[in-house]
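Hey,

The postdoc asked me to send both predictions to you directly instead of through the lab channel. I've kept everything plain text so nothing gets mangled by the mail client. Protein one:
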Amino acid sequence: MTLTREKPAVEPASKARLRLWLRLLRVTREVEGALREKLRVEHGTTLPRFDVMSALSRNPDGLKMSELSGVLRVSNGNVTGIIERLVEEGHVTRSAVDGDRRAFSVRLTDKGRAEFARQAAEHEAWIDAALSAISAEDAGEITWRLGALTKREG
């Protein structure tokens, strides 16, 4: 697949940006839908479980449940059920936090790290294939430009 579409005629900046936003949403939904299906079929897991394991992989010393919720930008309730299942499967350990009897820290087990590494490698390959029409240079440029949007105030 190659990107050979002609550029549209000059239009107001607001219309061009609206069109970009709608295209970003469509691409994101399509890629995310494919990822969800691949994770379900090939790994028997879900995207939220993958996201939890990814966050724990980046924090090998573990995270408090509240920290994990903050990293994922979801409620504690959303994370609790996922953690329960990952603990049952032996992918995550949960331990009390010293000095706070209501808080728990969670971390990946060796089994969890190995499973996440396997899933993450396939995830990267799936994304690479889904976005293969974009060169590495263009991907870097787009990433940089979109990153500039996240640094704005308000």
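Protein two:
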Amino acid sequence: MNPALVLWPIGLHALVTLALYVPMSRGRVRAVKDGKAKASDFKLLTREPDESKVFVNAIRNQNETAAIFYAACLTAFVTNGASYLIAVLAWLFLVLKIAHVLVHTGSNSLRIRRPVFMAAYAVLILLWLVVLAHLAGLA
């Protein structure tokens, strides 16, 4: 297996997260132009207009588990533990996080968003269990 298969989800997740900054910024600019916010509101984030809040929340959510995900993939890669199972789990996590972004910035239905988040969370735990099994010499 090509060990880089576990690195691609990291890069793609980073790009998805970075892409969220564009509509967030546009929403902030639009809110200032429409008089719904003042530029000074963003100095200390005293107020976040609805136009950008959904993207701010989506960015925050993507970053909440990103470091843990990146660390798992990088640990597997640098310790020669990048297996098909780890690659599948990394890609599955990425797909679930993209789905989470789409729900978060679309319908924002908690009935859909929470199960998707929990599925990604479960995959991340499983990913780390497999990485730790590799480190322990069990896999």
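Summary for protein two, as requested: The mean pLDDT is 95.

Thanks,
C.
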